[in-house]
Structure formats: structure tokens, C-alpha cells
User: Fold this.
Amino acid sequence: MARKSDREKSELKKHGIETDSERIRIAFFSASMKPGQDGVTRVLYKITDKLLNRNVEFIFFSAIVPAAKDQPVPMYKVPSMVVPFYRDYRLSVAADIQVNTVLRKFKPDILCVNSPCSLGWAAYYYARHMKLPIVAHYHTHFVSYAGYYKVTLLRDLGWHYMKMFYNNMQRTFVPSQPIVDELSTHGVRNLCLLPHGVDCEMFSRRFHSTAWKQSIGVEGKTVLLYVGRLVWEKDLATLAAAYTLIERQRDDVALVLAGDGPIRKDLQHLLPNAIFLGHKSGGDLAECYASADVFVFPSTTETFGMVTLEAMASGIVPVCANAGGAAGILIHGETGFLAQPRDAEDFARLCLELVINTEKRRRMANAAYQYAQLQSWDTIVDRMLGEYKHVIGDYDRRRAEKRLRKPRREKKKEKVQTGL
Assistant:
């Protein structure tokens, strides 16, 4: 991106040339780019789709990338090792050499980090050395995971690390206001609210199928749907306990889980009557959303909760924990229900209210659907690019001001030394 002074921009505008249309180069860094692996990769691929239609040139660095033929843009696989206890993810090691070599040829205008991992540090050190702006997107609330893996003593250390990492960024984009507030409380600076969007063409109530319930053996029942990874940090113990309470009161309610993960066998033991569909994506996932009746998502660790917005776009009512991202999306009693975090009885009560009161469920589902229609990815990506350009301009301006101040300081020092 050619850097222009305010005077140059003013002159260009006089001739009808808008400098905002300049092509910019972005280098993205992400822990994984395996399609559909988790909510983060789904967000990044959606952003990728939208950037392809804009005046942007960009590349990705990641420890996990798809085959070259399946890459919509150049993706560079960095050296990595398996993450202990979680073999689906990898941690980059000694990525600096490859990152530096590629970036010197690519010449980015801005670097964007999507995970506070070792690859993120490689990006930061390159940006600092080359005097380039660097921003981050806060996707995953890692600190909140500590309690689920019985390492709560590391929580304070985790916050210290997050503060140290993100305060090196010119801007950190956060998808929901509750998470912005929490990060700010813990001393993270330069935060900017930037919610995610939803693809209302991909997720829509028009994909409702009357045959879907029959195909999975729950015909005639009200279906509670969970979509996401099967991991304890999604508070699935709360979901299991809530459904157990519901089963004691009614036999016409089914729980369906679309997703996979390391605790699937444990959950199947806790929920012998639940339906486990495994990982779903594309049209199959859209059909699950649109054909279910209530979306249940007890996670308290979400920075946003893409699945909640997808459920709303599909025309079903969400019941989510009143914590994290969902609290910034739903209006309790209007577009969904917000249950007390980790309170199985409250989740069961609110789900049963929607099971019993079909008219209320219909009204809330319609309100949720209308809200989702306003959350366009095009709007979100345009806002993101606008923020990136602002960061680039601000960074250049600060560097220019610093260069102007430097001779004055040197001149003053010289006067002192000569006694003038």
C-alpha cells in the first residue's frame, strides 16, 4: 500500500481519486487453517471469502493448512509439534526463518494475529524489526479453560501472558462487548469491538426438513440441538445434567448433538438417550439447525459464539449461558434466553418453557431470525478493513512525528554540550 501524506491525499481527492481504494497487503497468522475445524477457522474462511472480492492481497501462515489445491489464497505451513493432550492442534516451532523469508518478498502493509501462540510472537518480532503495524483478533478465551483442566493456579499467569501479548498489538479486535469489558478489567489496552457476521444464505429456515427428525429417530419430539466441539470447556457437564432433569419430566424431548471431540464417549455414557450426529458442516449442518426446535449452548468460554448466531439465522430460539459472547448477542426473553452460568436447573427450566409454550417459541424464533438478518459479513469485513487502514495511517503518522522530534532532541543535546 503506497503511503501518502495528508497533503498528497488532499491533492488526489481534488482530482476525484479516493485513496481509500488503495490495494493493501495483509499477512494473517493462525494456529490452524483446517477447514471447519472450529469456530475460529470458520470465521477466518468466511473473512477470506469476502476479502477475495475486495481490493486486498493477503496470505496466511499456520501450523495446519489444507492441500494446495484447496487453498483459496497462498497459505504457508510452518514447522510445528503436536499439542500435548490435544492431537487435533499443533504448536508452531522455529517458524521465524520461514515467516521472515516469505514476508520480505510479500511486503505486507499490516500483520494480523489470530492466536496468542508462538506463531503470533514470530509475527510480532517481524513487525517490530521491520517497523510495521500489527493487530490481533481475540477469538478464544484461553484463560477461562484453566478451571476445566484442573490448573486453576495458572489462571493468573494466563492473564499476565494475555496482557503481555495483546498489549504489543496496535489494536486488538474483540467480537463481543462482555469480553471487551473483561479484557479491559485485566489491563489489556487498545481494544476495539468488532462482532462476527453470519451467512444468511448458508444458514436459513428455508432448509427446514420435515423428514430430518424421522431420519435420526426423533419423529414427533421437540428437539434440543447443541452444535460445537465436544470438550468440557463448553460446559457440557451442565448440558448433560440439564437434559437429565428434562427427561425426568417429559419423554417427548430429544437432545441432539452435532459435533465431535475427545469427550464424546464420556458424554454418550452420561446421555444414553441423546443422539450424537458427529461433525456436520455445509448443507447438513444448515438442515440440523433449521429442523430443530431449540438451540442449547451452555458454554461460558465463548468470545462470541458463532453457532448462536447461526441458530438464530436458521429460525430457532437459543438458550445460552449468561456469560461471554452470547450475553452480547441475545436479548433475554425476546431473541432468546440467557440462563445462569453452569446452572443445570435454570437451563432445564428455560428449555421446558419453550417446549411447553409453542407460541412463545415461535415469536422468539422470529425475533431471533430478524436480528440475524442484520448481521451481514459484508458489513463486518468492510468495518474490519476500515479499521486496518486507520491503524496503518495512525502508525505511519506516529512514526513521522517521531522522526520530526528526533532532530530537535539531538540539536538540544548539542547546545547543552557546547554550552550555547
